[in-house]
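Notes from hallway chat w/ T.B., transcribed later so I don't forget. T.B. wanted the structure written out for a chain they're using in a teaching module, and asked if we could keep both sequence and structure tokens in one place. Agreed to drop them here.
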Amino acid sequence: MNKMNSLISGLSLLTILSIGSCKDFDEVNTNPTVASKDQVRTEYLINQAIITAQQDPHIAERAFVRYWKNAGHQQREGSLTIGATNNDWSTDYYSRMTTKSLNPIYQAIALAKENIQSGSAKPYETTLLAVARVWRAYMLSELCDVFGVVAIEGYEGTNPKYVGAKEAYSFILNELKEASEVLKTSVSPSPSTNKEVTDLDHAYGYNATKWRMYANSLRMRLSMRLSEVDPSLAKSHFEEAVAAGAILNASNRFEIVEKDGWDELTGVMSREWNAQNLSATYNNLTVGLGGITTARQLKDARYQSHIKADNYLGVRYDKHLPLTTTDPMRGFYFDGLPATIDPRAYKTFIVTGDTLNPQFCFYPSWNLGLVKKTEYELKNNDEKKTTLVKIDARFTWNAFVSGSWGDLNAINDLSNIGAMPRLALKYRNSTSKRIFFPEWETYFLIAEAAERGWTVPMTGKAAYEAGIKASFAYHGADFVDEYLSSEAYNRVGTSVAWDHTTEPSPTVTMSYVDGYTKQRGSYTYRYPEAKSRLYKRAMNDHLTKIITQKFIANTPWLPLETWSDHRRLGLPFFETPAVEKPLDNMLQLTKTNYETVSIDFYPQRVSLPSVISAGNKSGYASALQALGGKDGVFVPIYWAKKQ
């Protein structure tokens, strides 16, 4: 048995408890490494499993930031976006999540069942058992959505067999259904008399009612994953779950308080050297959307002179910026602030160089020269010539595509981290709550279900608008009523108003400045054509609106969801990475075909770590079989688009 293979490990209860980060356990047990069976409790194991899934900064950098946020297009960076994975990152994440989250949750289920059967259970043990089953369902779904396969069994010291998402989801959805029914009538531990128990649940204090809401909402999320491959099964599970009661307000949101430090409760986006700059996807979705002017949002005088006209596209530097991408803003540098933008954008990302903003993030703090830098160079192609122009990037709003810039890298440094808006400090400094399931996601799921004709408790429009309002409330953003009625298009041709489904004209005449001649002129702006989109039905139909709003609302806390929606539907619009030179891990994308997109221009999963392929050969063979024979980044998961 290979000890590196975390799904083989089958750690004992005592070992798990000795390596856990549960401070409460240490307080109860004098010597955790020699705890007796009587001292092992279900709630300790559940606590271990949940807070480990929070991900410490080391794991979070690898999974949450470098994989999920990149693949989900919530930030500008490379790695998985351009088909690259790292075996060490994958191993660290996989081993940690299985050994210290899934392993103890399986042990918690076994222990709770044993206590109930022996008659030694506390009155609330049934609730703990149901909670453990719900959390196991979540963890199995997370691993399955990342790798495309997961081992449902194999935590008893034997080599596991892996199954694909079809079999895994069948198990997971049934688990959530059964656990929800138990939680409907089971007893919750009282915070007044069982504080040592309720304090161990950082989300809900083992409140059965709230855990049931989460179980139902999670079942809605995961059943919707199957909407394109098994709509009848998806519909059945979804309708049952939504009727049972889901997360519909902020007080029931599944979230866990982050704290400063270096353990599992430290912020998942806290590593200072991860830039987490504005992505081209987020930029294209939010600029122009909602029709709310920057002048009304950023009222301080320091912003006003930088706000550009509504029909202005920017400065064209087509000899310095990559053109081999489907980004409709390719070749343009925006030398100011957009006239109109979604009000949540300035709350999530902070204007370049706006150091007076208390949410401006000065990471990395040990290199403030880099962070505070505002002047960037564009150079002539001939190295013997002088700098073509110097650009002051303060109070500008740009998002440059990732990928290969080829020879263009040598003649400009606009892709420097200081030249783009960066994620707000509140998400970086471990003072927020990591959101696992918010109320707005429930509403957007209901809106999509209504659009599919499923039986839900409200109209698609009502749910869609409720989701937007919940997201605005979370961000403290203004103008929501005006926003909801807006028919203004964003840069990819989508508007906000539910009843406005008119498609935009294919082209729009915009003003711009030639960066080389300094002459003003007119430019024909083109919305991304159907051949450049995975979702080809429309730019402005209801489903596009729903997923666009879901993407904006789920940034930055739920990148795995934005990635999953794109894999499932091809929504919202994701630009392709630049390919000025071939991408080593995405050779199928070239200068000649980048405009005619296919699913293999976008990562579909993470390759399995070598601890499985080398340490569990029979298990790896079952994984390959479930994946259709290939363990590649561009192999689609069962529920994802296939073309």
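Follow-up for T.B.: The radius of gyration is 25 Å. Might be a good example for the class.
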